[in-house]
Amino acid sequence: NTPSLSRPPVLVVTCQLPALAQQRLEALTDVEVRQHGSLQSMPRAALLGALADADGLICVLSDRIDAEAVQAFGPRLRVVSTVSVGYDHVDVAAVQRRGVRIGNTPGVLTDATADTTVLLALMAARRAKQALALAEGGGGGFVLAGELGSQFTGKALGIIGLGRIGCATAARLLPFGIARVVYAGSRAHAERATPLGAEYVTLPELLRVADIVCICCPLTEQTAGLIGRGALASMKPSAILVNTARGAIVCHDALLEALDAGRIAHAALDVTDPEPLPVEHPLLRHPRCTVLPHIGSATEETRSAMANLAIDNALAGIQGRPMVAEVGE
Ligand code: DGY
């Protein structure tokens, strides 16, 4: 099904890109760009309709490229380029069975996401949510024994998933005086762990010893619901849990129970399941749960780099060239 040359390739883009990448997209001459003109992603029906005639798709993680979307692929589609490192929203096997290549954006968001992980860890440890509420309510001022958090000096850091973001998080937190770094995951990574002095342990051991638990692994069949009742019960009552990976790795009902029962000290989540959480969700108002709206990679620099990489991948896919980052390659 070689695309006919009678019209330029059509590149469907499901939302507006950050300014510099948007300018680049608008200046492309060798493709016809059909873009949803909003910061929010294209409605589902519009996406399914647009796929029929597309040669390439640039999408984001709120666009589900599932079996239904794959059914809607037209014969010309050659590439799905997601503006994200994670691709759990893409049914990889179904897409690849259709001969469509998948691009993602590893590497360029490592620093921003690790920064956010540290931000959340500090917010949790220093009870920033309560302190902000106190100050904004006109209370506070110096209270000798009030609003006491914990500090990282001498503490054990547990990283679930020692990939790029996990390593960058550990490297940022070590200078805070962390005494021990442990990590868990599908296998040991001596080459990454050695410079950080990190020890490979089982997940139960990590949860037992860590004061700060950072979830930095992808969402897969193996990690969905990984942090449930049992896992939370085995953590220290003084521990904090930080999730900047994917919401579905943590069972939210179990987390709420654990916070209510004082089984852990604080949870800080950049990601939730679903996103956004319904406005009445009790985790949003819980004094010991901090929730951010998936801003891990949200800096001008990083989101522009992600969008540029996604454009590169999409053009390479449409033109049949090697991609900068291709899933499964
Ligand atoms: C990703 O790219 O997968 C991140 O979650 C975006 O912040």
From TrEMBL:
<feature type="domain" description="D-isomer specific 2-hydroxyacid dehydrogenase catalytic">
    <location>
        <begin position="17"/>
        <end position="327"/>
    </location>
</feature>
<keyword id="KW-0560">Oxidoreductase</keyword>
<dbReference type="Pfam" id="PF02826">
    <property type="entry name" value="2-Hacid_dh_C"/>
</dbReference>
<dbReference type="InterPro" id="IPR036291">
    <property type="entry name" value="NAD(P)-bd_dom_sf"/>
</dbReference>
<dbReference type="GO" id="GO:0005829">
    <property type="term" value="C:cytosol"/>
</dbReference>
<dbReference type="GO" id="GO:0030267">
    <property type="term" value="F:glyoxylate reductase (NADPH) activity"/>
</dbReference>
<dbReference type="InterPro" id="IPR006139">
    <property type="entry name" value="D-isomer_2_OHA_DH_cat_dom"/>
</dbReference>
<feature type="domain" description="D-isomer specific 2-hydroxyacid dehydrogenase NAD-binding">
    <location>
        <begin position="120"/>
        <end position="296"/>
    </location>
</feature>
<dbReference type="GO" id="GO:0016618">
    <property type="term" value="F:hydroxypyruvate reductase [NAD(P)H] activity"/>
</dbReference>
<dbReference type="InterPro" id="IPR006140">
    <property type="entry name" value="D-isomer_DH_NAD-bd"/>
</dbReference>
<dbReference type="Pfam" id="PF00389">
    <property type="entry name" value="2-Hacid_dh"/>
</dbReference>
<protein>
    <submittedName>
        <fullName>Uncharacterized protein</fullName>
    </submittedName>
</protein>
<comment type="similarity">
    <text>Belongs to the D-isomer specific 2-hydroxyacid dehydrogenase family.</text>
</comment>
<dbReference type="GO" id="GO:0051287">
    <property type="term" value="F:NAD binding"/>
</dbReference>
<dbReference type="InterPro" id="IPR050223">
    <property type="entry name" value="D-isomer_2-hydroxyacid_DH"/>
</dbReference>
